[in-house]
């Protein structure tokens, strides 16, 4: 069986070929990437200029692969034992044997389901937690965890949100960091010592200014390479207390204040 790093580089090579052959933005790198030896994938990637986040948000069609298709659905992943009853407050997730999806978190059906784990986008969880604390909403006490979905547009989970979720739900909080297509790029384990990078979904780099660059490996519709996320983090490669040797992003934060959505709106005006 191939090592995880080898499988990741193979995926990266496939994405590079799709990007340079089928998207408008990366066509200028087509001849350079056409015959990439497996040993030179990373070196070839570094010759591609990073993509500005606002430029991607404003001109996404330049990065689209018109020949690819995707279901547009995600499946919740977590490492909580005993397969707890989990409620996902997001419409783009697939239900499972012990997982139900509630596009509307305010429905009485959520309380009747009696979830043991609550998962959803951080802004949805924030609104739901505040409603719980006001007494306007109620669900039976959770047993295991809250899983907060964050991402490049939302930024990392804040300490204030962690404290809010603890006050409202009284269980540990786990962050899952997503890309644009429901692809889980990094995730928090029970050690709560940063976010483990997903080798299957992303290839991470650090720019000279410390900024995190991400190449997406699980979004064939948008084979995006070297996106400058506007965030930085400490890079920990030592084994985690959970036993995993997968590198972690620790203390991830934005390099400048503000939400990426507001940045693109300001740039468009």
Features:
alpha/beta, single chain
What would you say this structure looks like, in words?
With 269 residues, the chain is of the alpha/beta class. The protein has two domains: 4-70 and 205-233 and 258-264, no CATH class; 86-180, no CATH class. Helices cover 27% and strands 23% of the residues. It is built from eight helices and twelve strands. Strands 1, 2, 3, 4, 5, 6, 7, 8, 9, 10, 11 and 12 form a twelve-stranded mixed beta sheet that branches. Strand 6 (173-178) and strand 7 form a beta hairpin. Helix 6 (122-134) packs across helix 7. The radius of gyration is 19 Å and the shape is elongated. The model has no long low-confidence stretch (mean pLDDT 89).
Compact description:
With 269 residues, the protein is of the alpha/beta class. The chain has helices spanning 4-22, 30-33, 41-45, 53-58, 108-113, 122-134, 159-169, 260-268, and strands spanning 51-52, 86-88, 99-101, 117-121, 145-151, 173-178, 184-188, 195-197, 202-206, 211-216, 227-236, 248-254. Helix 6 (122-134) packs across helix 7 (159-169).
CA gyration radius, whole angstroms = 19 Å
Termini separation comes to: 52 Å
Structure class: alpha/beta
Number of strands: 12
CA-based shape: elongated
| Secondary-structure element string | HHHEHEEHEHEHEEEEEEEH
Query: Main β-sheet: number of strands, strand sense, barrel status?
Result: 12 strands, mixed
Query: Looking at the chains present, what oligomeric state does this protein adopt?
Result: single chain
Number of helices, where a helix is a run of at least 4 consecutive DSSP H or I residues:
8
Residue windows where pLDDT falls under 50 for at least 5 positions:
none
Tally of structural domains: 2
Strand content: 15-25%
Which bin fits the share of residues in helices? Answer: 25-40%
The whole-number mean of residue pLDDT values reads: 89
């Amino acid at each position: 069986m191939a090592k995880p790093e080898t499988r990741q580089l193979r995926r990266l090579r496939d994405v590079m070929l799709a990007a340079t052959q089928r998207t408008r933005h990366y066509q200028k790198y087509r001849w350079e990437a056409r015959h990439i030896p497996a040993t030179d994938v990373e070196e070839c990637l570094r010759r591609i200029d990073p993509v500005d986040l606002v430029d991607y948000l404003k001109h996404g069609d330049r990065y689209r692969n018109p020949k690819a298709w995707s279901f547009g659905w995600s499946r919740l992943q977590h490492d909580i034992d005993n397969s707890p009853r989990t409620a996902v407050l997001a419409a783009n997730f697939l239900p499972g044997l012990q997982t139900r999806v509630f596009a509307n978190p305010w429905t009485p059906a959520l309380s009747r389901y009696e979830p043991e784990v609550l998962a959803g986008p951080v802004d949805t969880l924030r609104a739901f937690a505040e409603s719980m604390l006001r007494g306007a909403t109620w669900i039976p006490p959770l047993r295991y965890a809250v899983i907060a979905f964050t991402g490049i547009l939302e930024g990392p989970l804040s300490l204030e949100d962690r404290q809010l979720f603890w006050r409202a739900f009284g269980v540990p909080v786990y962050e899952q960091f997503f890309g644009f297509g429901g692809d889980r790029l990094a995730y928090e384990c029970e050690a709560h010592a940063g976010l483990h990078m997903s080798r299957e979904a992303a290839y991470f780099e650090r720019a000279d200014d410390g900024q995190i660059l991400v190449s997406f490996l699980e979004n064939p519709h948008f084979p995006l390479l070297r996106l400058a996320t506007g965030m930085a983090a400490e890079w920990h490669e030592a084994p985690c207390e959970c036993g995993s040797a997968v590198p972690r992003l620790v203390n991830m934060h934005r390099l400048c204040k503000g939400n990426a959505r507001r940045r693109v709106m300001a740039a468009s005006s």
